[in-house]
């Protein structure tokens, strides 16, 4: 007689029940993992969307600035061509006053300074603040220093096509009411946008620095320190062979007490200095800040002594700020130092259209 192993059947049922429960728990765990992945994907898509909006905003601002540059250069050319007659409009008179030959020559003096060539040629980070010593009103949105910075940036782009360039003209962003790039916070965000774009073009952008929602939220609030940290994080993503030129024209435009703007500028400069002084920084970060006239005592005191440069009064023959003139001074400097530019680059570049910035 064969006995039916009922006790084995009961144990089997119990075991199968446990397996079913385990499978259900495993299925629930998979659902949670899938949900987490969906959340992370949505967050990444949202972050990518925000980056695209930021880059689009930057490109739109570039177009606006380019229109201003072209328009002002046209005014300057017209004013010079009609110098026998004299300016016939208030706009031309303003351009004539701000860009007279003596003022251009004074701005050109920076190209005779060893300290400038230290900034440009030496293989370490630097952040000089240059006082232009120009005559004129502190209310001017732009100055010959602005034209110098624009042409200098374009000339260096031709000489060093593999370098990274970012530029901000403070005089173009002086309204807190209708300008997304107003003030020191806008300045840092504008520079961040340019570094983002450069990294995207190199397919080397790493957004791991934005892996915390709290950090993203403070950036969305235009927090000054968060923007500075992001600038540093992005700069560190470039390799040791890369030179990053950052030109900030007219920082004195933010030397005002309205909405604690100067205090914010002071903090921004200090944080930028900290990035430059970081021994672990791989790329050669070269930041140039300019003031058209003489900077205030408090602005000078916010910068380390070794980073200050005051241009001497220019008494020699007038020099223009054309690209050709700037290129010639870079390739054949009249300082105590010799040119460090490769001879292969010493061919005349085509004359630039002479664009400049206005304050609209």
UniProtKB/TrEMBL annotation:
<feature type="region of interest" description="Disordered">
    <location>
        <begin position="337"/>
        <end position="360"/>
    </location>
</feature>
<protein>
    <submittedName>
        <fullName>Uncharacterized protein</fullName>
    </submittedName>
</protein>
